[in-house]
Amino acid sequence: MTISELPKKQIVSFDKNSTMKEIIQLMLEKNTRKLLLEDTNYFISDRLLIQSIAQDYDFFLEM
User: Fold this and answer.
1) Among 11, 14, 17, 53, which one is most buried in terms of CB atoms within 10 A?
2) 44 with 35: CB under 8 angstroms?
3) Nearest alpha-carbon partner for 37 in 13, 57, 61
4) Phi–psi pair at 54, nearest 5 degrees
5) How far are the Cα atoms of 2, 39, 45 from residue 52, in angstroms, in the given order?
6) What is the pLDDT of residue 10?
7) Cα–Cα distances in angstroms (integers) from residue 53 to residues 13, 34, 50, 57, in the given order
8) What local confidence, expressed as pLDDT, does residue 1 receive?
9) In this predicted model, what pLDDT tens digit does every residue of 2-45 receive, in sequence order?
10) Helix, strand, coil content of the chain in percent (nearest 5)
11) Are 17 and 38 in contact (CB under 8 A)?
């Protein structure tokens, strides 16, 4: 098998003004776990989203 024979996956990107809701919708629609920020090499993943939400809502407070 060569590299050219590997299945190609569409690159899905988001805009820096996209809301979290729009990013999550894109991930679900395109069935992907990572999105690329347009015109950059930065990305966001489902894991980073969960971490951000958990920190914003203090899910990790000590009891």
Assistant:
1) 14
2) yes
3) 13
4) -60, -40
5) 38, 23, 11
6) 83
7) 20, 16, 5, 6
8) 79
9) 888 887 878 899 999 999 899 999 999 999 999 999 999 999 99
10) 40, 15, 45
11) no
**Environment class of 35 (CB within 10 Å of its CB; exposed 0-12, middle 13-18, buried 19+):** buried
Q: Compute the average pLDDT of residues 39-55.
A: 91
The pTM for the full model equals 0.71
Residue with tokens 């407070």, as numbered in its chain: 61
- Quick one: tokens of 33? 């776990």
Query: Are 55 and 42 spatial neighbours (Cβ–Cβ below 8 Å)?
Result: no
Which residue is it, tokens 């991930």? 27
Which pLDDT score, from 0 to 100, does residue 61 have? 64
